[in-house]
Every structure is written in C-alpha cells, then in structure tokens.
User: What shape does this take?
Amino acid sequence: MENEKRRLQFDFSVEALTRLDMLKDQAGLNTRAEAIRHALRLLEWTVEQRQEGSKILVQTGSGELREAVFPFLESERPAKPVSEVRDGQAGDMVVAR
Assistant: This one.
C-alpha cells in the first residue's frame, strides 16, 4: 500500500510554473513531479524541526549565521505533528495564512 500512487492535478500560474521549471533545472532534477516531491520532503523536515523547537540556521558566504524565517508557517492554531499527518490526517494540517 505504501508504494500505491495517486494522480493529482495542480493549477499553477504561468509565473509559478516558470519558477518550478527553473528550480527543477537548477537542482538537476528530471521532472516537475520530482521537484515537487523534494519540496514536500523539505517542507516536512522544516515543520518537524520547528515542532521540536529547533531553529534552522543559514550560513552566508561571509560566514555569518542567520536564522531562516518561514512566515508562511506561522499560524494562529498549531499544526498537527507530522507523525499524525503521515497517518493520513493531512487534511487538517493547514498552516499557511
């Protein structure tokens, strides 16, 4: 059951599709689906880190450390833990404003 696939259809603006293609090419990925799967894994990891109280730091080219800020993850209500979402309750995980 874990390898079962379901087909989804997304509507992207021309600008968003251009950005997706650019990111796909820059990352050396073969398909848009692959780019979206990687983005999903990255978002999942980011949410897990924040739920654990971790900070995500970025080191600039000059060596300065800055905290990565994800305003789209701020919410008035807390998101469900990622482990619950993995159990099939993804419909309740709305964290974007």
Q: What stands out?
A: The chain has one domain: 14-92.
